[in-house]
Write a structure and sequence with these properties.
three-stranded antiparallel β-sheet; 9 strands; single chain; about 240 residues; alpha/beta
C-alpha cells in the first residue's frame, strides 16, 4: 500500500530522513511514534504528496504522490495537527466536501458527531479547537478511504474524547484499510494500534507488529517499549 525506498529529506542542515525504507500495508492501525521534530509530520506529508523526497522514492496506493492525482486523493485523507476549517457548520462541511470521497457516509458522520458531542449545525468558527478537531476526525473516519493519515489527532481532546476517538478508530478499521496515527503522546494510542513504527534521528529504529509480540506471550507497555527503542539506538536520547 505504501513504500518508501531509500528516502532522504531535510530542511537546510537538518536531516529528517536518512536512507529510509519502509513498507506499510492494509489491515493495520500503525502508531507512528517519535519525539517532537523527529519527522513524523513530514513522513505523513510525503505519503500524501505534500512534501517530496529529495532522494529515493515514495509510492502511495500504486501512485506517485507528487502528482496529486484525483484517483489518489479520493482514496486518502490527512487529518493535520493544526486543523483548519472554514466558517461553516459541520453539516455544510459534509455536504461540500463529502462528494470528493466516493464511500463517504453522511449518516455515519452525524453518528460520530453525536458520540463526540458536536452540534452539526453550529458554525465552526464559534466552537473550540477541540470541537473542530472532533468534527474533522469524524469526517475523516466517515470518508471510508482506504488510507487514513492522522497527525497528532488527540491534541486538543479531553480525556473522555480521547477514549471516544480510540473507540471510533478501532471500529472504523477494516482489513482493506490502513490507518497511520502519529503522536509523541504514546499513552493515547495504547490498546488501539497493532503495529508500531518509531522514527528517530532520521532512521526507522523500530517497526514491530504488536499482535505478533502478543502471540509470542509478550505484552509490552507501549510507552516503555517506545523509550527502550530510543535507548537501543541512542542511549543519550532519553
Amino acid at each position: 500500500m505504501i513504500e518508501f525506498s531509500n528516502v532522504q529529506f531535510g530542511y537546510g542542515r537538518q536531516q529528517l530522513m536518512n536512507d529510509v525504507s519502509l513498507q506499510l500495508h492494509s489491515g493495520h492501525i500503525y502508531g507512528l511514534l517519535g519525539e517532537n521534530g523527529a519527522g513524523k509530520t513530514t513522513l505523513l506529508k510525503m505519503i500524501a504528496g505534500l512534501v517530496f523526497a529529495q532522494k529515493g522514492s515514495v509510492t502511495t496506493l500504486q501512485h506517485n504522490p507528487q502528482k496529486r492525482q484525483p484517483s489518489l486523493l479520493s482514496q486518502l485523507y490527512l487529518v493535520a495537527e493544526d486543523t483548519y476549517t472554514p466558517n461553516v457548520s459541520a453539516r455544510t462541511y459534509a455536504s461540500t466536501y463529502g462528494v470528493f470521497y466516493p464511500k463517504f457516509e453522511e449518516n455515519t458522520f452525524f453518528d460520530y458527531l453525536q458520540k463526540f458531542g458536536v452540534n452539526p449545525d453550529q458554525k465552526l468558527e464559534k466552537v473550540s479547537f477541540g470541537q473542530r478537531k472532533k468534527m474533522v476526525i469524524s469526517f475523516a473516519l466517515a470518508t471510508n478511504v482506504p488510507l487514513l493519515l492522522m497527525d497528532e489527532p488527540t491534541n486538543g481532546l479531553d480525556i473522555p474524547s480521547k477514549s471516544t476517538f480510540r473507540q471510533l478508530a478501532a471500529e472504523a478499521a477494516t482489513p482493506e484499510r490502513c490507518i497511520i496515527i502519529s503522536t509523541h503522546q504514546v499513552r493515547d494510542l495504547e490498546r488501539l494500534i497493532d503495529s508500531v513504527v518509531v522514527l528517530h534521528r532520521g532512521k526507522i529504529v523500530l517497526h514491530e507488529d504488536l499482535n505478533a509480540l502478543a502471540d509470542a506471550g509478550q505484552q509490552p507497555d507501549l510507552e516503555a517499549f517506545f523509550k527502550d527503542s530510543l535507548k537501543t539506538y541512542s542511549p543519550q536520547a532519553v
